[in-house]
Amino acid sequence: MTKKNILLTGASGTVGFEALLQLIDKKIYNVTVFDKETKQSSLKLLPYKDQVNVIFGDISVAKDLEAIKDIDFVIHLAAIIPPVADDFPELAKKVNLIGTQNLVDQLEKHSPNAFLMYSSSISVYGDRILKPFIKVGDALRPSEGDYYATTKIAAEEYIQKSKLDYTIFRLAAIMGNHKISKLMFHQPLDTSLEIATPRDTARAFVNGIENQNELSKRIFNLGGGESCRASYEDFLQRSFTIFGLGKLNFPKHAFADKNFHCGYYADGDDLENIVHFRQDTIDDYFKMEAAKVSSIRKFVTSLLKTPIKWFLLKKSEPYQAYKDKDIVQMNHYFN
């Protein structure tokens, strides 16, 4: 039986690397990975060069994709994500939109029968504090200043207008290997948060290869389901406890009231019923996170929790706007 040719973009990313390992583990596909050459991507991907075809290049440069031919299935995960996407909107546009356009154009020319599975985002729905239950047919209203979401919407539109067969998965909050950044304070504490682990997310894409007919020309919301839900405040408090940071006792106005995203996927079971990807709960996620923190590290962190939280607070743009009485920014972050 002829092996299917699979292309995986963004293979060195958190979800991408999980997808790579799962594809290799199946031992039934010819896998090509496309990624930008960096120290990190080289360290992660080159050890598998005897098992997969590794192509390094810039997805925003059309000629770098010329070696991609005769592909049957594409898992397209390459993207610039926040906070980098928001700080460098032109870079986000180059990679997320122009890169996707370049990939689609190359596939149309040299792999016209390829099935494209695209990774979009819950951010396309915008602020859902007041209406947290989200369905695919809901209006796409990205929050003010969310350049990442606008690139995802534009890329979705380009894919849907292409000649390719496709499916689009709008990913919930994918939690794993996260670094603390200023985004921590952009999200309101009363946000309804549904997560998915990187390995479950990767499984949805990998399992999708064998379910093209049911996924074809459809958009799905990808989240972990009811067992992966919490308020953002509860989620953050559990995270702080794991790392030894104690109570979530930041001052008022440290966290924004609005203009972020996330929510609960009311129709998330639609994808689960087709590709059967869910194995982890939110408790599993916290067990995995706790396993990464040694008792010594947790003890040291607990001793330094006050200066650490002071340092974190310095990253809060809502709090800075409040302190500076910056009316424009206060209107952006607060009700």
UniProtKB/TrEMBL annotation:
Domain NAD-dependent epimerase/dehydratase intervals: 6-178
One Pfam short name: Epimerase
Gene3D superfamilies: NAD(P)-binding Rossmann-like Domain (3.40.50.720)
UniProt similarity note: Belongs to the NAD(P)-dependent epimerase/dehydratase family.
This protein's name: NAD-dependent epimerase/dehydratase family protein
